[in-house]
Amino acid sequence: MIEAEHSIVIDSDINQVWDYVQDIRKWAMLFPGCKDCDVIDENNSKWLIKVGAGGLIKTINVLVNVSEWQGPERVNFNFKLESEPVEGSGSYRATSQADGNTAIQLQIKVTGSGQMAPMWEAMSKPLLPQMAKTFSSKLKIEIEQSATVQAKGKPALFEQFSRYLRGIWLALSGADNTNTEQTSLARALKENKATVLKFIHAMSCSDASSADECLAPNAFTVAKGYGKFSGVRQRDVMVGTISAFKQLLPTGLNLDVKSATAEADRVVVEFEGNAKTADGSSYHNQYCMVFTLSGGKISQVNEYFCNIHADEVLWPLINREGTTESIQT
Questions:
Q1: Please, are residues 19 and 146 in contact by the beta-carbon 8 Å criterion?
Q2: Rounded to 5 degrees, what are φ and ψ at 196?
Q3: Which segments of 174-223 are extended strands (E)?
Q4: What is the mean pLDDT of residues 192-205?
Q5: What's the 3-state SS for 46-94?
Q6: Are 89 and 42 in contact (CB under 8 A)?
Q7: Whole-model pTM?
Q8: Per DSSP, which regions of 97-149 are E strands?
Q9: CB 314 within 8 Å of CB 248
Q10: Per residue in 152-161, pLDDT tens?
Q11: How would you classify residue 322: left for phi > 0, otherwise alpha for psi between -120 and 50, otherwise beta?
């Protein structure tokens, strides 16, 4: 059995929070990888979710049953995969604080059974904490934005008017801020490149924590091409995959950066890996990745690499069934 727990504080009172979370559709749409939610009745629903680790991506149907709606403080639920011997449970706890905010605690457990249990539990171990963290962060953002949507309009207008007046003043005074703007741009490009190189170093040595620090809340990656590893992976899967590298490639990817170019909000990096898999096979792939950044964090990654080499060396290891070694390699 795998367990994960995450706590947050939402800048809204407990009743505003409950107005949001009592709708199961909103739970589903915030859950990482969820593509659709079919509500059967007030307590039961079916979620279509894409999950993955180490490049293995699968679409599954999850049957969710809410065993207790006890608002605004408590929700308990159970879930079961429709086509896999995997089930679990979870809970939501809300506590009103003296300052008017709401403390939230989310807990989830996953249990596998049968021949595939080791694989599912190995996949869940690195992914579950990231899923809980991502879901909590999205919940906080959605509720706080919903509560302050009217208040946001006035500061935005004031800020625009201030910039307008400042522009007039600079024009009338003959001030030249070109050098300042160029300096700010150069600094931003340098910081973007540093963030991307930190992320690649984290990939190289399977440092999921450092990789997590480089990513925006809604980050995702698109693996290009037509191989078994191609497709879209959300933020939680990105971080979980890097964590899984410790088992798949015990010595690390050993990435060697050949070039890095920063322009506007993009950084393009060419690099090569020189790794050994857990069974001793050589994995020497070549990569070009295009990173898009927002606010100093990576929001999107387009990956280009040799699909044939990845399919031949890595896919058989990941696709082995029935033993923990299928994931640990």
A1: no
A2: -65, -45
A3: 215-223
A4: 94
A5: EEEEEEEECCEEEEEEEEEEEEEEECCCEEEEEEEECCCCEEEEEEEEE
A6: no
A7: 0.50
A8: 102-112
A9: yes
A10: 444 445 555 5
A11: left
